[in-house]
Amino acid sequence: MYPDPKRVRDHRITTRLDDYEDLCWRAMCDQRGIQPATLLRDLAVLECGRWERLPERTQVSAANEPSMQDHA
Question: How many angstroms separate the CA atoms of 40 and 45, rounded?
Fold first, then answer.
């Protein structure tokens, strides 16, 4: 049925946003005319590609940046 069964998107990741983050996220999606899940997947794939090109030491420091920290 599919040329490559591993390309079927059946893995889920759940995330929770506060009201301010959701407002910002929805505005970004509306501006681009794209579904929120699609935009999140596209950004996640781009970020994974960026991390693959970074040395391990830089990955650790990037993970410790304030923008990467949980705001809970």
Answer: 9
